[in-house]
Fold:
Amino acid sequence: MDIAIMGYGVVGSGVALLLQKNYESIVARSMQSSLNLKYILDLLDFPGDPFESLIIHDFETILRDENIGIVVETMGGLNPAYDFVRRCLLAGKSVVTSNKELVATKGYDLLCVAKEHNVNFLFEASVGGGIPIIRPLTQCLAANEITEVAGILNGTTNFILTRMIENAMPFDHALRLAQNNGYAETDPTADIDGHDACRKICILAALSFGQHVYPEQVRTQGIAALTTDDVEAAGDFGYAVKLLGRAKRLPNGRISCSVAPTLVPRESMLANVRDVYNAILVRGNAIDDVIFYGRGAGKLPTASAVVADIIDCAKHTTRRRFFGWEAGGTHFVADADDDAVNMFVRAIADDTDQARQQLVGLFPTMEEKKTASGSLCFMTGVATPRLVKQALASIDGLQVTQMLRVL
Ligand code: HSE
Structure:
């Protein structure tokens, strides 16, 4: 069987390398007589690269070649990835992708096209890099009603936060390190602003709760506004700051879905997920809690998940994998700001004593820690973020510099 890769960046080149490195065992597991990487589509040439001779620039070459049974999409972004993937599926080719944006925004649509043409559309690498999560969630945990899925879903931001917490490293320096290691997206604002984690929680939510969840339905906050002072103050309360994606089933049947920097108790497993590692907690009504942990980004870890999907496609040329992923709706996702949590707040007041008195009136169970700078730093007690924002806004002369959820 012949294979094509579209996009020769960090992940695409990792796929080519891994296919070559473990060729014998991969072919044996695919139950094919051979798996031949025939084309690599990219805008650039790669002079001197070991796969230079496979580089092509015209997508139609892949589309027209009837021997290409599996196409790997590692271009990223929506355009032209969506159009290319759709046309490959329409042409009867299975597609494997690592593209979170594509799956989070067009997953349902592409699964329908794949179904109509009896081919597979697989995306294990789209969440958690090398961590097996899509198959375990949809197959091994299929006997459960999933009530919540939550985790550290972005390696770049976890790497940056770890450096800020452990080394008091400035944000920019830590970001450069993450980029040099190939963890960050081409445009790292997708990592920093939480959009990458948002796309991943959308995919996990759709698979867990059965309906498409669109990124614009998810309240998303990134880490760009976090300072080393915030991280240190959270540490004084006994917490580590982690960028968490969360989706949970509400008693009314809707789901609450969010991405936000969150204070996590320092002794918890999630707080101890460091550097580029990701961890995903799945809560089911039979299994209770199960946690998946591993490298959430990087060339070979992500390629590992892509190549596993290639093997799956090669093994199942006449059968399709079923995900139970239906169309989304406007009322399916509730606003996470209405979900009550404890909140961590840092603020500066014109008159600190007066502001403190008002705060105690508004948040009777609040817990305050003294800061060297004299700024206010406290936990509100459980309330909805919406009400906390309204209450804080009602205090004259109070400037809120940080407000974070507490797990
Ligand atoms: N930029 C992503 C991350 C890559 O840092 O997690 C893996 O999806």
